[in-house]
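hey so i finally got around to running both of the ones u sent me last week. sorry it took forever, my laptop kept dying halfway thru and i had to restart like 3 times lol. anyway pasting them below in the order u listed, first the sequence line then the structure token line for each. didnt double check formatting much so if smth looks off just lmk and ill redo it

first one:
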Amino acid sequence: MTTGFSTTSTAQVVPTGRRRLATALLQGALLLGALLPAAQAQLLATGDPRPDGAVLWARAESPGELRFEISQEAHFEQPVQNLAARFDLSGGLTAQVEVRGLLPGTRYHWRLVRADGTPLLARAGFVTAPVAADKRSVKLLFGADLGGQGYGRLAPGSPGGTTGWPIFEAMRAESADFFIALGDMLYSDRPVTAEAPDMTFSKGNAFQLPKPGPGYVNNLDDFRRDWLYHRSEAHIDRFYRGTPLVATWDDHELVNDSGGPELVYGPRPDELARDARLKNSDPSRPRAADKRRQSVFHNPELYRAGRQAMFEWNPLPVLDAARGGDAALSPEGRRLYRSLRWGGLLEVFMLDTRSYRDPRYRVDSDATPKTMLGAAQKQWLKEQLARSTALWKVVVSSVPLAIEGGNERDPARHIYRDAWLPVESDNPYAYGRELRELVAHFKRERIANVVFLTGDQHFSNLIAYDPDGDGQPDFHEANIGPLRAGPGDGKLDTSLNPRRLFTDEGQAEHTYGSLRIDGDSGELVILFHDVAGRERPGARLQLRPR
């Protein structure tokens, strides 16, 4: 596994005195920005575009009431809707509205307007989804892993002239219909210093804006602080103003390898007797006797705060939690899993792989099979996939199917698996029985043209799966590497007969993916792109519908 990314920039050696001065200036500038919220005001984003509307989200500079004004023309001479919203400190100065009654396949513009009728400067726009009978071409982008392993916002004056989160400028140039955020778009449990870890930068550089705080979160205000650091950057803000966001979460929006039941309820007595570390609840992750940082296994308050921040900082539709579900896992009464239909060619199924999953340290057996999705979400997915009339079904799972995941080990040295499959035949901790149940459902219901989009593991892969061994792949997976975070690697579980069509293991790059479906042929093409937007050699998946 490599320790950093290479870039096309030339490394620059900065004298020690200048490095210290630059670091001090950058830290002072960031502190000043925190004291002047107007410098980070009017963050806008559109979410989940549908044929008749979308979710409009904003963060204001101060408390008060603002109107979301929507128009078909950019000068707002004849607004089609005005929806009022209150921005309060209790919501982190964020607010959203769900607009309905719009025309399908139509471009709209929107802005914020004060109570006295004065419009604010920021503007956003989106195109509503086409109706199900419309088979126009579609293009979406997807990505994951932003701000992990010390990779933060690049500072002005960095080599190559890049600043902030530069990959989003290339993504903005794609003019996609929408962007799927696969999770880990926040690293609440990782620090970012002024020193950029990029391999081509000299040691001791000051090429990043450090993230405020100690590098971990304790409460809701800490989560809000970290979301603001990620979202108040110019490239990502411009991108979200013009490209709708369809978001889910993964573990680092909470804490590494975690999930709802694990954080809320903690271990059973027999599990705690097997591994005493499972009682740890300290988000600072103090070092154990072996000098390794401990994981957070049980912290209900952290779960509630992280979940609230996720809903505050993303344009997410208000969908009621499943009836009869565990209220402690959905304390606000909402759910993240949902589907998004885009004309006749595409339906996207957004999964929530964190809120309902059994603890990673729980054993998966025939007698007590584990769940990653929870009963209600699993039944919803089965039913919706079987009913879908879209040509292509894209299933979004924040964690990969066959690539290994997980960091902690039990006393017998088995890894507490975080992804779907165990990799080792004697590992009892994954979620493989549930995944194999879903794969059997695809076969039984003859659900064709299924593609999984996954993230989490910080390197990129294209994989074909042939679980019945008939020589014809039954479904595919595009597992995307980081937008800006440290590189990863991982072994492949072979139980579903996977075949890697592309991998950059050992030489991972900062990457985003694009998925296009042609309206005439129905052909689907997935590409991986580098920070500049160039197609990565060999990273192409081209599929014709069956």
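and the second one:
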Amino acid sequence: MLNPLAPLVVLLAVCSPALGQSSQIGPSVLDLTRDYHVGLYSASIDVPGGAVHLFAQRGGGGLHLGTGGTVAGALDSYEWSGAGGTFTPNDPLAGTYFVAPDGRIEFDLDPQNPGTELFEAWMAPDGEAFHMARYELDSEAVSLLALAKSSGHTNASLAGTYRICAQRLELATGGYETTAEHGTVVFDGVGGAVFTGTEMFVATNGIATTTPASGTASYVVAADGALSLAGGVDGVGAIDATGDVFFFVTASATSSEVGMTIGVRVAQNSNLAAFDGIYTYHAQGHELGTSAGLPRTVTDVGRLTLTATAPTTGGYQFDGKTYYGDAAGQSFAWRTVVGPDTFANPGVVTLIGGPPIELVFSASGRYAVGRAVDNRADLWFALRGTAECSDYGSATAGSGSIEPELGMRTFPTLGNSGWRFAVTDGLGGAPAVLALGFSQGPWWGIPFAGGLLMLDPFQIAVAPFVVLGGPTGTPGAGAVDVPLAVPAHPSYAGMTLFAQALVLDAGAPGSVAMSRGFRAVFSR
């Protein structure tokens, strides 16, 4: 039998720098230059003691993500506790960000003291939105939504019928109260809005009261998509570039009430298949009452996969975590729930098989907002995302004891002609091969050239030759992009591609430095 590794050895041995070089690239999947409207609200419970703190941010100058992973911005901050409230206009923030292959954007807001001010969010594949809930075991139960600023908007950009869900929190004697709303808002396109729906109020003792709700408000959409409302409800937020989704945050310097309302344009679609695919989700809920362990904050975060089996029925799977916070501390539990779902026009998907959750999808199928159908006042949000891509296995270091890294630029969504693998931290100017195949092989790797091959050599489909950029011979300075357009046909959704970079480097065992393996999954 022929040695399946032979083509790799030959390519590395006969490489020629005449094939050209590329400029060095950064490690982030998305290198963004974009401004965002941001809104968030949160609750935390002191450990010990149980004192409640409420917090919200909105407006201000917004948030800027810059090339090279920089973060800068300013938001209006509102903080409330039993001692009173504090309003800080244009509260500044700065730091760094990194977009990981699994779809998370990781922020460090104090890079001079790494690990002290971290949080992460789910990023849209095109960078147009991100959202988050609690970060790991932080005491704050937080919900955040950010929409990229756009241009050319007027009040007419927000017109028609939207389904909304809202959650508000307010301090009260003995703790705090929650209010949740869901229903329909009709925007007239010239600055007027009418709401009809249902309101559920939960007192500090846990008793819930549900009543019909209605009201009117005026609204203004600025040219960059900023949204403000006044009248029956006051809030500051934003719309996305298409007017498919909006949010606004409720907060005040004179009242402890904080919260968020999210609305999606009503979908006129009669087939659940329109919403097939992978979504990232987060939710914030609160369990109130006088029993031991209450009040308690509850946040959910993870991935949701929807699969249609018929126009009105299908299945779903949650994969994520549920975090809890109370006066005794924070804890979490892994969450995997599989069950059936049902679909009802316009765009309402009900997840059953566990505590029922109702999600209302936008006309584009990109966003969803929802609630648990029980007496817990909560707010759910979902954003179409991607399957989890990640590295795996072991790397083999080269010169300077530096391991080559293999990542990707942009996400492998169907029809993405700009997707590419990114080889970084190799030997500057060195020839390399990117091995691509359809099987990972054994998890412990296959011995090869003094290192470990992390994919099945018999399943290698192609191994393009490249030359790393950067100063020739400088350890860790070499990088190159390897483009690979993702087919648009739906049949490619879920296909997994395995890859590994092999760099000719005399400083490596066997003269070949190797990256860890990389697993990329194509998504709708």
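quick thing i noticed on the 2nd:
Residues 1-26 have pLDDT under 50 and may be disordered.
anyway thats it, ttyl
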